[in-house]
Structures are given as structure tokens and as C-alpha cells.
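Long-time lurker, finally posting.

We've been working with Protein CBG23257 (Caenorhabditis briggsae) and I want a structural starting point before designing mutants. I don't trust myself to interpret raw outputs, so I'm hoping someone here can both generate the C-alpha cells and explain anything notable. Sequence follows.
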Amino acid sequence: MLFASKVAWIFKSYGHENISLVDGGFDSWKRHGFDVSTEDVKLPVGNWKAEDEFKKFVITFQELDAKKEGEEKQYIEKTSEINFLDSRIRAQFEGTQDTGLDPYMVNGCRIAGFKNLPSSELLTKEGTLKSEEEIKSWLTKNGYVENQPVVTSCNAGIQAALLAYVIDTVKPSSTPPRVYNGSLKEMELRAPKKISEGPQHLH
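Top reply, 14 upvotes:
Generated this for you. Predicted structure of Protein CBG23257:
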């Protein structure tokens, strides 16, 4: 479901509203005995027009790095006001498993103040989403704060998309989560000192 959720979030960013994910992905579809085919799918040409909704669903490095006039903190530093959520597995967040960050560039394994809500923990052993109540309880347990803006990140914006999609589903809001597409790989290149919390990343 990871890559499917990324594609779904891209469609949202282009203004597409009628989007659903197959719970459990293709494996679940086959496991339930639904029809599959190897035939090429030929769809008629449609008339859908894309709209630019990127600012609603995606946040850029420039926005994270920005500081409004008269304010002391950059947006990324407002960790008490915004749900900054790192969706990597806990071992990567804690620096005990390598994620490809350059230890000569960064001094930690995560961005300071970000909370760890691994997208992998949204799923059952069968790969389907846990119940809505389980997910809501899990969000609260892991530091999610109601009525605060949400920014999700990971290594390269894919795990972050699944977390954002699920939060948008179980906690619908007029201000949906925003995915930081560049995530840690972009931060490593543009502002490596921001990756400063936790033990130095594994080589």
C-alpha cells in the first residue's frame, strides 16, 4: 500500500477527489479471490482537468525553512504547535538501522522535535489497515495532538504519504496533512544540521 498511497496523494495534490486505496493492496485482492487479469487495460479518454492543490497537500523545504517577519522560529522549529511526524520504522528513527544518511553530513538520525509514528504500524500482519479505533488510539499514544496542523516525513516521502492518507481518513479536517516530499534526503543536502537529534547515523 505504500506506493499506492503515494500515487493517491499525488492525485490529491492535482485536485482529484474521488480516490480510494485497496485495503491490503494487490496481495489482499488476490487472497480474497477477486478477479485478476494480464490483459492490457484500454480506457476511454476522459475530460478530467487537474488543479494545483500542492500547497494544500504538500509542504516544501522552503516553507519549512521560512521564518515569518517578527517571529523567532522557523516553521520547522514550531514543534509544540505542529504535528511533525516521522513515519519511518522505529529502528531508523532511533538510529539503530541504517537509512542511507551520510554520517559525515549529519550529526543525528532524525530532525529535532519530530515524533515517530511508523506507517508500518498502521497495518495488521496480513497487510491490511487496522481498525479506525485502533488507529485513533495509536495516534494519541504516540503524541499526535488534535487540532494541530500535520506534516509527515520519512526518507523520501513514500512512507509519509501512507501516514498522511490514513490520518486524512480517520481524522478528516479542512486542513489535511501535508507531506514533505523531499523528507530526510532533501534535508540532508540542504540543511544537514537540522538532522541533529538522536545518535549519529550509522555508516
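Before you design anything, note these points.
The beta strands are 58-59, 83-86, 115-116, 150-153, 178-180.
The first strand starts at residue 58 and ends at 59.
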